[in-house]
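User: Predict structure, ligand hexanoyl-coenzyme A.
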Amino acid sequence: MREIFKKLIKLTKQANLGGGKERTQAQYKKGKLTARERINILLDDSSFQEIGMLVKSKNVEVGSIDNSIFGDGVVTGHGTINGNAVMVYSQDFTVYGGSLGEEHANKICKVMDMAIKIGIPIIGLNDSGGARIQEGVSSLGGYAEVFQRNVLASGVIPQISAILGPCAGGAVYSPAITDFIFMSNNSSYMFVTGPEVVKTVTHEEVTSEYLGGATTHAKKSGVADFVFDNEIAVLQQIRRLVDFLPSSNQSEMKIKKNDTSFNTEIPSLDNLIPKDKNKPYDMKDLISKLADNEDFFEVQKDYAPNIIIGFIRVDGFSIGVVGNQPMHLAGCLDINSSRKAARFVRFCDCFNIPILTLVDVPGFLPGTDQEFNGIIKHGAKLLFAYAEATVPKVTVITRKAYGGAYDVMASKHLRGDLNYAWPTSEIAVMGAEGAAKIIFKKIKQEKLKEKIIDYERNFSNPYNAASRGYIDEVILPSNTRLKIANGFKLLRKKKLENPYKKHDNIPL
Ligand code: HXC
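Assistant: Predicted complex:
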């Protein structure tokens, strides 16, 4: 080998060491992988091309910054996931705890800028002690530069964050702006202020895990979209998510052909709805049956489970699904479920992913808790999201569609393209019993039963809505896959634009 090349080999070796063997061992002891190992699991074999390996901190004169370390605590570059290009950055905790200094931020900004220019997803693997203390305001500036790009990229390219270690202070806000956050159980946490600060200010004693661990963000806050048992599972599931998404808001949908024929009936669906109207059933059973290969990738599984969101493929194309879940709160819409579904509907609309809505909703959840916390504005978010969405929208009402919730759940009036109802549907202002009690307030108890039956016969069915064209067709449950697949196929070339505006003003 020529002498002049040897220097490059030496520098590359040195850069690959990150913060050194000892710190790498410490990382392993915590059950964590190194930044480069994570990238290798995330991307197709040998596809990673590194950018900026030899970058160094400019701020060596400040504090304890070591001039011999390359990369400045973040590994950046590009590669492919199942053949599709992505940009990636992976923070290296072995270098100053993965903290973000000026050059570290510049490297992240560079790959973000490239991702936006090229129109491909950006994936950030976060493992960082936050703003690099030694670099002071330069780190704060660096964060803001990243945030600015996150905002500009929003709705243009998919942005995915994995939290694979600490993520504290301002570091949480870049992931928060991205489209999806993955966390790994027991090794990742996110909070604006850590347990020590919490103790000082509010006198609460909490562990990092309780304050901002994966379970907390999956179940309580809804900050995490996906939680998996370990880092490897997280990285593999990011690959699965990327497969469902287009590369940008301008690119064609990926097609994943499979053996599931959509032109067949699914007889078991005719028995999905229990004879007793008040009995729950699992809406996920329906979603899986409608999906190619019964493959449903659920988002925010443990948060606001009264609504289900996620991705399926129908005839090879990605579809975003929103479904009320009768197994939780009878499928009512409340604050959290409205926010959860609204964000998902907007994500799908940004990236031209058609939306399938499965409706079984007895209305908005009543009560002071909901009203005091602003269900009016939060519920309006979902209404707004559906109303502004221009992607193909196919809706199937399986059972209840009462009141305002009927309107909200991708009704014909909110530009639903194809609205189907099963014969078991009850499309009405409210349930028969409640309605009869209000209308026939003064009537005797024994007569009330008759009135309830009358109301059910006259109003709690799909035929009134169908006679007005609010429902395009009343269909047998067993034909649902066939109907929706043909519907989405028809709608592939749909064109619809909203009036010009700078941007809308969704009730935040
Ligand atoms: C520089 C840092 C650092 C930081 C950690 N390190 N955080 N260096 N700036 N912010 C270094 C440590 O000095 C140590 O270096 C190495 O990373 C590993 O840290 P440990 O503490 O040994 O690891 P661990 O016990 O796992 O604890 C990790 C930690 C803790 C929980 C992240 O280090 C920590 O609390 N750090 C500070 C977190 C923080 O308050 N950040 C600022 C947030 S404010 P050596 O050389 O020993 O390996 C913020 C504002 C941004 O981010 C605002 C933007 C809007």
